[in-house]
Design a protein that fits this description.
Blueprint (H helix, E strand, L loop, with lengths): L1 E9 L4 H15 L4 E7 L16 E7 L2 H8 L2 H4 L2 H7 E9 L3
Antiparallel strand pairs: 1-3, 1-4, 2-3
Helix pairs in contact: 1-4
Length: about 100
């Protein structure tokens, strides 16, 4: 089992474009033995401190294997809509982990 945490920072005014991409990307996770465990949209009042700013969303997903995750990233249907991701996301941080 592999866990993926992603901190997503959105370009101002591109929230709807980001949502359009997510409507395609999120359902395809299951195709590759994955599950979206958490999708959090934090607010300023939920932060105690930050050195990196407030992300627009935080995702926690799990995949049965690293190969499943890599296959998800190479999904041809998802790749057709990467322009929406590129248009809407300023930056993102991907953290790979495992349950201990």
């Amino acid at each position: 089992m592999i866990y993926i945490t992603q901190l997503i920072y959105i370009k101002k005014g591109q929230e709807k474009v980001f949502e359009e991409f997510e409507q395609i990307a999120i359902p395809s996770i299951a195709t590759y033995n994955g599950r979206l465990l958490l999708r959090i949209r934090p607010t300023d009042d939920t932060f105690v401190s930050t050195e990196m700013g407030r992300p627009y969303e935080i995702h926690l997903a799990e995949f049965d294997s690293i190969q499943d995750f890599e296959n998800f990233m190479r999904d041809e249907e998802r790749k057709k809509f990467l322009h929406l991701k590129e248009q809407s996301i300023e930056s993102s941080i991907l953290i790979r982990g495992m349950k201990i």
